[in-house]
């Protein structure tokens, strides 16, 4: 006998396949998502990198990459809000609601599509970084830990994107929320050590979530102890994910009621 969970999984799989086919037919989404982070990486490594002292003794591309990966994801989740907004405005969600499918599958399809698309963009950026000289002796376990952190980061930001997609009244508004998220890594340890920043800026940089995530990924790549940074990073990401999920589900229920 097929249970409710099987229906939810089947419905989510079908709708996720629909969204992924849209991306395959328009691969410029992934290309556009990767272009800005790659351009930033080229700018900082080849133009500004020589003037930046990190104090790590490592190449600047190695220092820079963790922050660039987060910017890649922050850029990509704007498309999730955009696609969800179009579905809501185009009436396709109302059509889905008239069909015998699980209501939650509509949101989860967008979330899983975001996860797949962003991980592909991240892989593209890592490939370019390797071509630019990025090297790591990280073990398979360290790579899996990095992947897990990036997945958690993507899910947390994607559920924020779902809120934006459900709440926006214009296409521009649906994607504009991602701009502060893209800017946040610039006030963190992503590009320069926080100790080089003025007092109030350094305090903010040291106590915002991006810094702990960047420091954790950087330590994993450098085969160094992650210390307590990883628990701070996981606490931030898990907290954001839970709050964003609850708010997104509540907003969705109001929207379709």
UniProtKB/TrEMBL annotation:
The chain crosses the membrane at residues 30-52, 64-85, 106-134, 140-164, 176-194, 230-252. The keyword Cell membrane applies. Pfam families: ABC2_membrane (PF01061). It comes from the Bacteria. The keyword Flavoprotein does not apply. InterPro entries: ABC2_TM, ABC2_TM_bact-type, ABC_2_transport, Nod_factor_ABC_transporter. Residues 28-255 form the ABC transmembrane type-2 domain. Its main location: membrane. It is found in: Cell membrane; Membrane. Keywords: Antibiotic resistance, Cell membrane, Membrane, Transmembrane, Transmembrane helix, Transport. Signal peptide: none annotated. It is a multi-pass membrane protein. Belongs to the ABC-2 integral membrane protein family. PANTHER family: NODULATION PROTEIN J (PTHR43229:SF2). This is Transport permease protein. It comes from Pseudonocardia ailaonensis.
């Amino acid at each position: 006998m097929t249970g409710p969970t099987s229906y939810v999984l089947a419905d989510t799989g079908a709708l996720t396949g629909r969204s992924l086919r849209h991306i395959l037919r328009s691969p410029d989404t992934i290309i556009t998502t990767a272009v800005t982070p790659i351009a930033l990486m080229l700018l900082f490594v080849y133009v500004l990198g020589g003037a930046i002292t990190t104090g790590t003794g490592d190449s600047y591309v190695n220092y820079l990459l963790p922050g660039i990966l987060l910017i890649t994801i922050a850029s990509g989740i704007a498309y999730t809000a955009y696609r969800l907004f179009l579905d809501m405005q185009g009436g396709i969600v109302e059509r889905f609601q008239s069909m015998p499918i699980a209501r939650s599958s509509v949101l989860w399809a967008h979330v899983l599509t975001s996860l797949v698309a962003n991980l592909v963009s991240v892989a593209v950026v890592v490939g370019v970084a390797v071509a630019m000289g990025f090297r790591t002796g990280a073990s398979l376990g360290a790579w899996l830990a990095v992947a897990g952190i990036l997945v958690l980061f993507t899910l947390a930001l994607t559920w924020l994107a779902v809120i934006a997609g459900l709440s926006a009244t214009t296409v521009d508004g649906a994607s504009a929320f991602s701009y502060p998220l893209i800017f946040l890594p610039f006030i963190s340890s992503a590009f320069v050590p926080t100790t080089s920043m003025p007092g109030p800026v350094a305090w903010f940089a040291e106590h915002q979530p991006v810094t702990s995530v960047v420091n954790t990924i950087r330590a994993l790549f450098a085969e160094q102890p992650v210390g307590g940074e990883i628990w701070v990073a996981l606490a931030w990401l898990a907290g954001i994910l839970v709050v964003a999920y609850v708010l997104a589900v509540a907003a969705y229920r109001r929207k379709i009621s």
